[in-house]
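Annex B. Sample input.
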Amino acid sequence: MTQGRTAIVVGAGAGGLATAVDLAVANWDVTVIEASSQAGGKMRQVNDGQNAIDAGPTVFTMRWVFEQLFANANGSFDTALEAVPAQILARHGWSDGSQLDLYTDHTASRAAIAAFASEADASGFDSFCQRAESNYRVLRDSFMAAQQPSMLSLPGRVGLRQLPDLIATRPDTTLWRALDRYFSDPRLKQLFGRYATYVGSSPMLCPATLMLIAHVEQEGVWQLPGGMQSLADAMVSLGRRCNVDYRFDTQVTSIDTQSGSISGVTLNTSEQLKADVVVFAGDCNAVAEGLLGESIKASVKPRQVTQRGLSAVTWCLTAETEGFDLEYHNVFFDENYPSEFDAIFTEQSITQRPTVYVCAQDRVDGHKPTGPERLLILINAPAIGDTATPSDFDHSALWQAATAVMARSGCRVKASEMPAVVTDPIGFHALFPGSAGSLYGGSSHGMLASFTRASARTKQRGLYLAGGTVHPGPGVPMATLSGRLAAEAIIQDYADR
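Annex B, continued. Sample output.
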C-alpha cells in the first residue's frame, strides 16, 4: 500500500513534473520544489524587455507521450493545451542561396528533395525514412520505455522476430558515414546529420541508430501558440488537480539521509522536509559532484569531460528580419560541417562559421508578422561552462559570426544593438548546476553511450532520478518518459512496504 507515502521531487522540468503527476495518481503525497519562479526547467522563457520568448527547447514532438500522461491522470491533453500541427517541419538555407523545406507529408518532402538535389537523392530519402522508421519501431518499447536496458538485455527485449531489425540499426557505424548510403548531395548530409545535435552529439561520432530522430519528426511536429512554457504550465495544472504541492523560488541545498535511507531535503531557508523518497530531476551530475550533499554523492557516477554533450550560445530578441521568408523552425548552414564539431569536441571552441538555428515564434500556423517578431537564435558551443571565463565567449563576435552565416543565406536581422538576453555555456552552467553548460547531459558518441546514462534507480535507497540527463535521454518527450519511468520504479519498489 502507498497510502501515506511522501515524495519530494527536486526540479520542475518535464521529468520532475511527469514524476509528480504519476505518483500523485498512485496516491502518494507529492511536493515539487523548484529554484526558479517558473516551471519547465530548460523549457524556460525570458523577457527581452518587450516580449516573453522561449529560450530553450522549441520543437514539440512525440505528442503521444503527453497524451498518455494526461490520460493516466484522467485529464485531456487536447483540452489542456492548444497544439497546431506544422505543415513545414523546418526551412533550411545555405550560403550558396539554396533553400529546402521539409514537410510532415513525405510525398511533399520527396518532391522538394528531387527538385533541390536529384531524383537519386529523393529515392535515397525514401530509403532513409524507411530505415529511420524501422529504428524507431524496434527501439521505442525495447529501449525508450525500458527501465534499465543494456547491450545484453536489449536482444531479449526485442525478441527473435525483430532481431534482424535491431542489427540493422547499425550502432557500429556513425550517422555521418551511414548518410553516404542515402545522399550524394553534401547539403542533404548536413541537413539529416543535424539530427545528432538534438541529443547533444556530433553526427561524425554518434551511431547511425540515431537516424530514428528523423522519424520522430515525420510522425508529427506541433507548434504551441503559448510557447513551450504553456506545456510546463499545463503539466503543473494537471498536477494540482491531482493534489501535487508546488514550491517555487525555493532551493534544495541538500538531499538528506538517515540510517542508510533517504530522509528528506534541507532548503535554503534551513527548513527540513521529511519524505520517504526523493526524486532529483536536475542534471544528475550535480549529485555526483556533491552539490546535494556528500552522503548521496557516490550514488551517481560522475560525468567525464569527454562525455559532455553540446552546449549553446543563444540570443532572445524582438526584431525585424528581411531577405529570407522565415518559417517557425529555420536552419542556416555554412560550408565544412565537420569542422564545426571538430572545433567543439576537440578544440572546445566555436567555429567562425557555425550552423545557426532560428525559431521565429510568432510564425504559428503560417502567420507572417509585418513588424518586429520574437526570435530565438542559437549556435552550438562546447560544454565548458564550469571552467570558461567570459572572454571565452565574446558575445559581440559570436553575434557577428552567427548573423553573417544567416546573411550569406539571404536573411538579415535588423537589430540596432546586441540582443538584451544572451546565454552562453557559463550562463547555462549557472542555471543548471553540475551541467558545465551541457544541455543534453552526456553525448551519444559511440555504440555504448546510450547504455551508460544513469537510470531512475540509484545506489542510494529512496533516491531516484528523472530528467533529460538520465535514461532514455534528452529532449522534452524523453525527459517526460524518464519522469514516468521514475514514478513506475518507485511504485514498484514500495508496493509491498
